[in-house]
């Protein structure tokens, strides 16, 4: 058996006040004298009283909870995003419920349905695929408040995201301006239809009159350091005369840097390396890595504010809105030599 549930009546019996007075006091109502409020709060604490949030939500139609779905908790940038979202939601009086899809489509659908069953007030979702969003569209059409942290601008779902296409374009253009013509691309997101970084890379090549070459592309299954290391080995084994590489995450860029060091390549003299997300490890690597910045504070602030706006919209949801934030390129030694 679980511990007995302490009711407002139990606090009333202990203090000698009415249930209504106890209820007002625990809600810090100014109608109740301060000393009475303190006496009732002390009694509630002594009895280990916990408010019945389920009963409150039935009355208010709000649970004051938000579901956060990420693809991975081991990705350093998503860990920072989760922390920033939790803090910002707490400032606004919301509790964050957290789940990961681990990059699996069925698991993503499962955790979204779990949050729906828990009647969260809204959801923030970093989807595994930025294109395969039918299941999320159906959730929005059913009246649920949803904001994506990445997604297709034509998804008919609210999106607040970094403009990774533009970030990749800036990174590739930077390498071209440094004189590189054979630029590798390590990007596992293509397997899920997340093509934005590839598209930005190709745009920069096309503008410079450089033909795309498939032997310069590697598509690892994960975004880890080891995946970057293996992808770098794969690219270099092809004998493609590559002099620079753009990795879709800093973790993979760190793996590429490790391979270069192990195999006697000077970075950036023999091989320039650029990553994505601007995580702390990139800045403090043995050779500090140039990286496309992920503006965590800006993304999370705008995403949370948009979700609260949707929650407060009442029964009629406004049209979906897409906000793309242009990233900065943080140039370091791995590509500049300075």
- DSSP helix count? 14
Strand content: 5-15%
CATH superfamily of the largest domain: Response regulator
State the total count of DSSP E strands. 12
* Broad structural category: alpha/beta
Measured between the Cα atoms of the first and last residue, the distance is 67 Å
- Enter the CATH topology name of the largest domain: Rossmann fold
Radius of gyration, taken over Cα atoms and rounded to an integer in Å: 25 Å
Protein name: LacI family DNA-binding transcriptional regulator
Keywords: DNA-binding, Transcription, Transcription regulation
Organism: Devosia oryziradicis
GO molecular function, one term: DNA binding
Description:
- The chain has 338 residues and is of the alpha/beta class.
- The protein has 3 domains: 8-51, no CATH class; 63-163 and 295-325, Response regulator (Rossmann fold, 3-Layer(aba) Sandwich); 164-293 and 329-336, Rossmann fold, CATH 3.40.50.2300.
- Helix content is 44%, strand content 15%.
- It is built from 14 helices and 12 strands.
- It has helices at 8-15, 19-26, 34-46, 53-60, 76-91, 105-117, 134-141, 164-177, 196-207, 225-237, 250-262, 280-283, 296-311, 333-336, and strands at residues 65-70, 95-100, 122-125, 146-148, 158-162, 183-186, 217-218, 244-247, 272-277, 290-293, 322-325, 329-330.
- The strands form 2 sheets. A 6-stranded parallel sheet has the order 2-1-3-4-5-11, with helices on both faces.
- Helix 9 (196-207) links the parallel strand 6 (183-186) and strand 7 (217-218).
- Helix 5 (76-91) crosses helix 13 (296-311), helix 8 (164-177) runs parallel beside helix 9 (196-207) and helix 10 (225-237) packs across helix 11.
- The mean pLDDT is 88.
- Keywords: DNA-binding, Transcription, Transcription regulation.
- Pfam families: LacI, Peripla_BP_3.
- InterPro entries: HTH_LacI (IPR000843), LacI/GalR-like_sensor (IPR046335), Lambda_DNA-bd_dom_sf (IPR010982), Peripla_BP_I (IPR028082).
């Amino acid at each position: 058996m679980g511990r007995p549930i302490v009711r407002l009546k139990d606090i009333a019996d202990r203090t000698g006040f009415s249930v209504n007075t106890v209820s007002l006091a625990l809600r810090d109502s100014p109608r109740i004298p301060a000393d009475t409020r303190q006496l009732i709060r002390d009694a509630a604490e002594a009895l280990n009283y916990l408010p019945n949030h389920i009963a409150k939500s039935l009355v208010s139609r709000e649970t004051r909870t938000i579901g956060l779905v990420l693809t991975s908790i081991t990705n350093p940038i998503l860990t920072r995003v989760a922390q920033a979202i939790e803090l910002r939601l707490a400032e606004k009086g919301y509790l964050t419920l957290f789940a990961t899809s681990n990059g699996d489509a069925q698991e993503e659908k499962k955790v979204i349905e779990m949050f729906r069953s828990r009647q969260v007030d809204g959801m923030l979702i970093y989807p595994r695929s930025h294109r395969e969003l039918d299941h999320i569209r159906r959730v929005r059409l059913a009246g649920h408040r949803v904001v994506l942290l990445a997604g297709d601008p034509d998804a008919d779902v609210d999106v607040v995201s970094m403009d990774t296409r533009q970030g990749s374009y800036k990174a590739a253009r930077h390498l071209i301006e440094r004189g590189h013509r054979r630029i590798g691309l390590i990007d596992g997101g293509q397997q899920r239809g997340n093509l934005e970084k590839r598209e930005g890379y190709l745009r920069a090549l096309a503008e410079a009159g450089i033909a795309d070459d498939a032997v310069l592309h590697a598509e690892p299954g994960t975004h880890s350091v080891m995946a970057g290391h293996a992808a770098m080995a794969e690219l270099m084994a092809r004998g493609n005369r590559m002099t620079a590489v753009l990795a879709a995450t800093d973790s993979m860029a760190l793996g590429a840097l490790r391979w270069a060091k192990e195999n006697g390549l000077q970075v950036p003299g023999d091989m320039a390396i650029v990553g994505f997300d601007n995580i702390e490890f990139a800045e403090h690597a043995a050779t500090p890595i140039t990286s496309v910045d992920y503006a965590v504070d800006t993304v999370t602030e705008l995403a949370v504010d948009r979700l609260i706006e949707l929650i407060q919209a009442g029964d009629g949801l406004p049209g979906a809105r897409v906000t793309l934030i242009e990233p900065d390129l943080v140039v370091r030694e791995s590509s500049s030599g300075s």
